[in-house]
Amino acid sequence: MRLPGIYFRHVAREVATQTLIVAVVLLAVLAIYQFSFVLGRAADGQIPGGIVPRLVLLTLRTNLGVILPFAVLLGVVLALGRLYCDSEITAAEAGGVGRAPLHAAAAVVVAPAAVLAAW
Fold first, then answer.
1. Cα 58 to Cα 62: distance, rounded to the nearest angstrom
2. Please, which pLDDT band fits residue 77 given cuts at 50, 70 and 90?
3. Which of 28, 41, 80, 91 could form a disulfide with 46 if both were Cys (CB 3.0 to 4.6 A apart)?
4. pTM for this prediction
5. Mean pLDDT, the chain, as a whole number?
6. Positive or negative, the Cα torsion across 106, 89, 81, 6?
């Protein structure tokens, strides 16, 4: 089975873009929360003030394994939802493309994210 090149790239780009946007937003929210939490502990004198940025980055790296699966799930759902809403998937299926490019495009984004989350 041969995957259509342009349609596959379009779907993969849409899924990757939505996943990246969701991941950045989730990381920004978590970074703000972590920064305020660590800054509060530094203000109470529990930790030195000089290690606040380093501690925030370490907690973000730790929490990336939790955030990344949610970002991928939401990115795939948002991308496919937009494609369905704009009737692009319906038009592609009417043209005889099928759903294989959708699954392959999602797999192209999910596989590296799974490896990164596992690492």
1. 6
2. very high
3. 41
4. 0.80
5. 86
6. positive
DSSP state of 51: G
Rounded Cα–Cα distance for residues 39 and 31 (Å): 12
Give 54-88 as a 3 state SS string: HHHHHHHHHHHHHHHHHHHHHHHHHHHHHHHHCCH
Give CA–CA dist 99/2, Å, rounded: 12
CA angle 74, 76, 87 (to 5 degrees): 120
Say which residue the tokens 């959708």 belong to.
102
Cβ-contact 8, 101 below 8 angstroms: yes
CA distances to 10, 15, 97, 111 from 70, rounded to whole Å, are 22, 13, 29, 14
* CA angle centred on 99, ends 118 and 10, rounded to 5°: 75
| Structure confidence by residue, pLDDT tens digits, 9-59 | 888 999 999 999 999 999 889 888 888 888 888 888 888 878 888 888 888
